[in-house]
Amino acid sequence: MLMSQAGFKTYQVVFDLIIEPHQIPEFKREILVLTKPWENIWHNHAHENDDQSLIKGGKILYGKNIQRYPLIHFRTEKLRLDERTCYAACIWGINEGAEALKKFCEEEAYKNFQWRQKKRRIQVIGGIFQPKMRKHPALELLPKFALEEFSLMRILPFDKASYRLYKNTEFFSDKLRLLEDQIKNQVILFGKAFQQDKIGEEGVVLRILDLSKFETCKYYPHPDKDQANEYLGVDLLIGTNAVLPDGIGLGKHKALGYGVLRKKRDRRSLKD
Fold first, then answer.
1. The Cα angle at residue 37 between residues 233 and 246, in degrees rounded to 5
2. List of residues 6+ apart from 149 with CB closer than 8 A
3. Closest of 264, 193, 194, 255 to residue 235, by C-alpha
4. pTM of the entire predicted model
5. Could you report the per-residue pLDDT of 17-69, keeping only the tens digit for each?
6. How far, CA to CA in Å, does 111 sit from each of 63, 132, 139?
7. Distance between CA 160 and CA 229 in Å, rounded?
8. What is the residue-wise DSSP string for 171-225?
9. Strand order in the sheet with 206-219
10. Packing angle of the helix pair 160-168, 172-193 (nearest 10 deg)
C-alpha cells in the first residue's frame, strides 16, 4: 500500500521533444535506460535477476507486474508551436515518484537521452511548464450535492468484459450510467491505493457533465512490431464530490498518458 494520509506531492517536467501520443511507450523506454531500472519506482515490474540483466541491447527487460498505482507516468502536454498544435514529451510523478523525478531532473540525467538510436539533445521547458513540487491535500469527500469539475482526457475505462456489456446495452442513458460507474470505480481504487479511507464506495458521487469525443486509441506493446491493441478512449467533463489531486491518471494504461484528470473550475452544486 502507498501511504498518503498527510496528502500528496506531485512533480511534472515537460521536454522540448515533440512526439505523438502513440510514441509515449517508446519515449518511456528511452528514459528508463537513463535511470536505475531495477528500482521499480519508475515502473510497476518486479525483477528477481541481477541488476545488469534488466538492460540488454539498450532495451528494458520487464518482469512480473506489480499491482500498484504507478508512481511515475509518461505522457504528453499539448502546446502551440509556430501556430500549430503539437505534443511535447512529459513525465509526471506522485509522492515517491515525484521525488525520484525531481532528482532525475536535478542531476540532468536526460542529457544522455537517445531517440531512434541517435543521441538527441533535449531540454526542460520552463515558463508555464516550469517544474516544481506541488502539494495537494489528502483526499476528502464534499457533501453529495457539491461537485468539483474535472476534464478527463482519453480515458480507457473498460476491460473486455465491461466493454462487452457496454456494447450490448441498448439505450444511451444506460451506457452513460455504465461509463459513470467505471470511472467512479477508478476514483475509489485511487483512494484505496493510497490508504485514503474517506473515499469509499458509498460516499463517492460522480456525474458525466459533458462527453466531447469517442476515439479508438492504439497501444503498441512491442516496439519492433506494428501490431496494436485497440481501446475505446473517451474525452469527458466530469463532476465529483471527491477532492482529487490535479493531474492524476485514471483508467487503463494511465502510466502511458491515458485518462489525465485536470481541474476545470470551482465546485458547483447539483442543486443549481
1. 40
2. 209, 237, 238, 239, 263, 264, 265, 267, 268
3. 264
4. 0.86
5. 999 988 998 999 899 889 876 778 888 776 655 444 455 555 555 566 777 89
6. 27, 19, 36
7. 12
8. SHHHHHHHHHHHHHHHHHHHHHHTT-TT--TTT--EEEEEEEEEEEEEE-SSTT-
9. 206-219, 229-240, 146-155, 260-269
10. 160
Q: Which three cell numbers stand for residue 69?
A: 498505482
Copy the grid coordinates of residue 57.
541491447
Predicted confidence (pLDDT) per residue in 217-257, tens digit: 776 666 566 677 777 889 999 999 999 999 999 999 999 99
Q: Which residue has the cell 520487464?
A: 62
Q: What is the pLDDT of residues 162-206, one digit of tens each?
A: 888 988 998 999 999 999 999 999 999 999 888 766 666 678 999
Tell me how far apart the alpha carbons of residues 251 and 185 are, in angstroms, rounded to a whole number: 9
In sequence order, the 6+-apart residues with CB closer than 8 A to the CB of 174 are none
The domains located in the chain, with CATH, are 8-134 (no CATH), 139-269 (3.30.70)
- Which range is least confidently modeled, 150-159, 247-256, 260-269? 260-269
Q: What is the pLDDT of residues 86-144, one digit of tens each?
A: 999 999 999 999 999 999 999 999 999 999 889 999 999 988 899 999 999 988 888 88
